[in-house]
Design a protein that fits this description.
Elements (H helix, E strand, L loop, with lengths): L34 H9 L9 H10 L7 H29 L17 H9 L13
Helix pairs in contact: 2-3, 3-4
């Protein structure tokens, strides 16, 4: 154990009298209940989501929702981006667990390919059932 490391814990020295030995939480200034949400919504002005605002606005209007604030469109875009990202990450984990690495380049680069066999179980976790058309079976 390094004596210079301030994060090192030693069992040789007990905590000082009156100290419980537990890590005390950092005290933060009290905030109004809605302040973090207001700050987050204001940050959406500067954020450019992966899914364009026009695409999100189109699907929102098709669903019957006409947003007046562009930050709401960005918030929905951000939620959709997170949803797609989670599904892609789950599909990647399925691919890695299966060992579905293409062996074209055995040396340096192991490229992973997104297949329906990996995507289907990931989508099923979110309640989306995908079936192949009959002409593929």
């Amino acid at each position: 154990m390094n004596a210079d490391d301030p994060l090192a814990i030693s069992t040789m020295n007990p905590p000082a009298p009156g100290m419980s030995g537990l890590i005390q939480p950092v005290k933060q200034e009290p905030r109004a209940p809605g302040v973090p949400l207001v700050e987050f919504v204001q940050q959406l002005d500067d954020y450019t989501p992966t899914i364009p605002d026009s695409v999100t606005a189109h699907y929102l209007s098709r669903a019957g929702f006409e947003p007046t604030d562009p930050r709401i469109v960005r918030l929905v875009s951000l939620a959709a981006q997170k949803f797609v990202s989670d599904i892609a990450n789950d599909a990647l984990q399925h691919c890695k667990m299966k060992g579905g690495v293409s062996n074209k380049n055995k040396g340096k680069d192991k490229k992973l390919v997104l297949t329906m066999e990996d995507l289907s179980p990931a989508l099923a976790e979110y309640g989306i059932n995908v079936k192949k058309p009959l002409y593929y079976t």
